[in-house]
Description:
The structure holds 2 protein chains of 2 kinds. Chain A is 57% helix and 3% strand. Chain A has helices at residues 2-11, 38-44, 48-57, 63-77, 83-93, 98-107, 116-133, 137-150, 170-179, 185-203, 213-223, 228-253, 287-300, and strands spanning 24-26, 31-33, 36-37. The longest helix of chain A is centred in the C-terminal third of the chain and has 26 residues, at 228-253. By secondary structure, chain B is mainly alpha-helical. Among the domains of chain B are: 40-81, no CATH class; 83-270, no CATH class. The radius of gyration of chain B is 28 Å and the shape is extended. At the A-B interface, strand 1, helix 2, helix 3, helix 4 and helix 5 of A face strand 1, strand 2, helix 1, helix 2 and helix 3 of B.
Amino acid sequence: MKEENKKQKLKNREPFLKRKTAISYKTEEKTVLRGYNLSDLAEEGYSFCDAMFVLLQGRIPTEPEEKMLKYEMGEFMEHSMSPSAASSIAVTAGRPNLPAAVAAAVMTFGSAHGPGAAHGYMMNKYLERARKEGKSIDEMAKILVDEYLDNNVPVMGMGQPQHRDGDPRAEPTHLKQEELKIDGLYLEFQRAIEKHFHARRKEEGRSYVPVNCVGAGNTALCDIGFSPNAAWCIGSMVRGYSCAAHAVYTLKKGRAWAASRNEPMVQMLDLSMINYIGPKDRPVPPQEERQQYAMKQKESGDYKKWVI
Amino acid sequence: MGNLNEKKIGNLSDPKLPYDYMNRECGTVPLDANRPPFQWVSEVAYKNIHRIVSRGYDTTELVEQGYGVVDLLFIDFQARIPTLEEEKMLNYILILSLEDGLSMPAVMSRLVAKSKTFLTQACGSSILAFGHAYGAYSAFGDMVAEYLRRARKEGLSQSEMAQILVQEQPPGDILGISDLMLEDPAAKRLLARAEKLGVAGEHIAFLGEIAKAAQDQDESPVDVDMLGATGATMMDLGFTPEAIWTIIAVTRSFGAGAHFIEEIEREDFCRLGETLTPKEYYDGPEDRPVPPLADRHKTAQPAQTHNLESWRESFEKRKKLYGSGFSIVEEIEDPTKTKI
């Protein structure tokens, strides 16, 4: 039965999912991405970054645009111990297949860790408002900063918990964009946001919080034509490469389970690493007392402080 | 309500237990003062407030000097700057790995997209498509490396060892050789580019020998496919099988991101319970009445068996129910052959 299925499958190379798609098609002869034969793109000498433009924008980029993406992907790929790398290392401790560790790593990119799409959507929303309300870029940047800070909402693209003096990648990215002369509306807007953000914090006597890699990198990606989600895809997936390296390193040179007492250093999951601050140890009520116990517990309401 | 140390709880006083459960210590384990505390130990990268450093290279300085993501892959995985030819070759491979139509990673990304998730969840799920059948770069690399090791140890030529490999691998199932690319020249162009750039080495050469041996043996035409061409070339570039597996899976996740976006742009989200499965798709047990709960003791059959024959009989019976998992037999490592 299984052999028959296999033979049938070989004859039938139809896709699992029937979909109209504008991204690519694949025949027995070639794979075509947005109209370009993928093999021809590579043969012609285009770069991987060029191909990213074809994939996500359907076009060949200009040379400076390609250079900018190369810079951006290069700088964003490795970030040592961030939620993504830590996740890939922790998942590898259980020794699943490697892709599980890499998938977990890229899935850490959410609303706090590398929120590239959200930053892009924020910029687009306020740029559209500027257009509709007849405001200048600078005026709208001030409105954005005030609206966020008045409501105690962090301005996306500002601040990084580890690089307290400023993410080493951020300002150089702005400068690279200017050097390559691909500084567009987004960089102008981002710079204006930073100006008003710093001014307001200074006015309030608060510390200096510099632009982060999302604020700088995503701005560049927006200026070279990537949508918020496409930019997020680029930023998050390129990190997957370095997380894969951390996973492979842990697989080959780290201890499975990360709790061995034979290692010279206390391990990540050593029991002594647990600092428990929950409810104190308490007896388990027997079933015959359960209903009375549960009702009393519910009535007291003490449990509510532990509800998460 | 009693206290922790007085009452009997279930089987927890059973003398067969390895220690006294009713008098177990409470509280967490104190910090170990004899060993250094936990730190993230890494040979790959570190960062401080002002720097991010990969294998000794400041990443901001790298990109300012014109290095890019392709170079960074060599740095992260191999701790070295690649030659220009190596960089060009990997760049070529990444382009070819970026997109593959509505293949499994794209389908997985689209399916996840339909439930209205973050893009990263969809892309992450596409990476999970790379198992030991689809995109099995690790399995391919391990196979090639193992047979090359044997060739060296046994003093055999690559051609002789390729013949052995083809005989020992399941017929028609040799990783890297198939009928998938008979009409598409992309895999062969990739190998030709490796030769042209001067980066082709023993892995590409061995792949060629495997292809020849398979062609001699197979009745139907076969040739090097994309898995083989990519895997062998990346091994010649110095990447380990594990590195290749993950790098290619991540590369495809960019394509999966585009599929996520398009799925949202062109299709609807899917609600819980929305998808129907027509009965003609179903070939499980016939519709049957649910027995009254009170009659369970009359109808329910225990799963336990008490001798090997009935165990086997029961096992075979269960194999007939697809989805139970009994027809799947996974090979586990032979402990007698485990390398220490």
